[in-house]
Write a structure and sequence with these properties.
By secondary structure, this protein is mainly alpha-helical. The chain has one domain. The chain has 5 helices and no strands.
């Protein structure tokens, strides 16, 4: 799902403009989401190789070396992506609290 979000970045931005929703993600945050999507893709490929019925110790060794090599190359990007996820969850929590307060006010009136 994250990969689709990254691929549909421009249409999502246009839809947000049409709906008059403030864009809350900066370009650096979109880049961090793209990097996180790449990390998930590397993990997915590795797990698929490890779970094959024909997998052997040699296959597992090769798959894990591939994964660690690719993740080491992306290490600085991964830490940035982790920070983006943390910031996104904080924003989501703040928005949820705002919506709950509005709903509470609406119900009490």
């Amino acid at each position: 799902m994250l990969e689709r979000f990254v691929k549909l970045k421009v249409p999502i931005q246009k839809a947000m403009i049409d709906l008059k929703i403030n864009q809350e993600l900066s370009e650096s945050e979109y880049q961090r989401l793209a990097d996180l999507s790449k990390v998930f893709e590397i993990l997915k490929v590795t797990v698929e190789e490890l779970c094959k019925r024909t997998a052997s110790l040699i296959t597992a060794d090769t798959a894990l070396k591939f994964m660690f090599t690719r993740l080491d190359a992306m290490q600085h990007d991964f830490s940035a992506a982790k920070e983006t996820v943390r910031n996104g969850s904080e924003k989501a929590n703040a928005k949820s609290e705002q919506h709950i307060k509005k709903l509470h006010l609406t119900l009490t009136l």
